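TOPIC: backbone geometry
CONTENTS: sequence, structure tokens:
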Amino acid sequence: MKVFIINCFDTYEHRVDLLYGFFKANGDTVKVYTSNFRHFDKVERNDNKNNYIYVKANPYYKNLSLGRLYSHYKLSRDIFDEIKNQEVDLVWVLIPPNSFVEMADRYKRAYPNTKLIFDVIDLWPETMPIHKFKSLPPFSNWRNLRDKKLNVADIVVTECSLYHEILKPVVGQNKLQTIYLARQVNEIKINPQLPQNDISICYLVFN
């Protein structure tokens, strides 16, 4: 089976890596199309990963900005332009950005036999700190960019049960599945030497 995984954010890459590893272990041919821009650090990526295709994204420096919205829209268009002449068995798209949904809809109409999965990692604008304005334009239009086309997918995956419940009226129960966020964990062995007459407190910090 030929698989494309499409992602925007390096912050979601632990999930992408697990998906990539799963499909490769299954004997599938896998390519990952992703942004060359690091969201948290606001810098261009210069690393290389096997079968990762880094698509140039316009840099942005504020998380709530027109520059960021344009960057995501252009990236969505450019990634799907790269794959528009390639028919594969499965396209797995991590959402957000919401503009991925619109571009994936166009791809699905061109290749109706390709299985399309939307993997909803976050809900924009619902989870953003704009509580008073979420139901007003342009934020309502932003949400509709996602909701109006979610049903074109064969399956919609959510990363938690809360998103599952929120999207159920939009997608319907039959298409929804929840796959919780996970990452590869390296085992650490701890052998503490505890004093006999004192109380010791241990803090565990997970990154």
Notes: Residues 108 and 114 are 7 Å apart (CA to CA). The mean pLDDT is 88.
